[in-house]
Design goal:
170 residues; alpha+beta; Bacterial Protein-export protein SecB; two-stranded antiparallel sheet; 3 helices; 6 strands; 36% strand
């Protein structure tokens, strides 16, 4: 998706959302890896989220891929050992009243506008729970600011998600 206004994104998402009802939210994948760093040091945490929309028949999914990585504070960006890293894949599964074919951009707009706010509390709880059970302090994802709260004329520069790159982190 190139540059798009919130109003256009909302319009595209509504094509999918009309007649859709949330059925289940499912944890698809959870990878938690502890690195070689000390539990006593301060950390910097980087969060990344990619969402995609997928449809098949009457089912629509909003898939969220959360990549969260902690590095020692003050460490160089790429070469530093990680303290811990987590990959969480979670799916919001919707059921529509009838089958319909949707453009990929409409499905991705649905995932951004509707799916991400539905998924985030679940991913947040999983991350906090898994890090609390580690030797490190619990980490909580920040609150997700829903795109629907932005003004209609706000322009977003969106890049196509690169799920292959995300999975290389795991």
């Amino acid at each position: 998706m190139p540059a798009i206004t919130i109003a256009d994104l909302r319009s595209q998402a509504s094509q999918v959302n009309d007649g859709a009802e949330l059925d289940t939210i499912t944890l698809v994948r959870l990878d938690f890896t502890i690195g070689e760093a000390s539990t006593e040091q301060r950390i910097n945490v980087e969060n990344n989220l990619i969402v995609r929309g997928i449809a098949s028949g009457r089912r629509v999914q909003a898939l969220g891929h959360y990549w969260v990585s902690a590095q020692p504070e003050g460490a160089p960006d790429d070469d530093a050992p990680f303290v811990w890293r987590v990959l969480i894949e979670v799916s919001a599964n919707y059921l529509r009243n009838e089958e319909a074919d949707f453009a990929e951009q409409d499905l991705d707009a649905f995932a951004l506008m509707i799916g991400a706010p539905a998924l985030h509390p679940y991913a947040r709880e999983v991350l906090q729970s898994i890090t609390a059970r580690s030797p490190f302090p619990a980490y909580t994802l920040g609150q997700l600011i829903a795109l629907s709260s932005f003004p209609d004329d706000q322009v977003l520069e969106l890049e196509p998600p690169d799920l292959d790159q995300l999975r290389t982190h795991a």
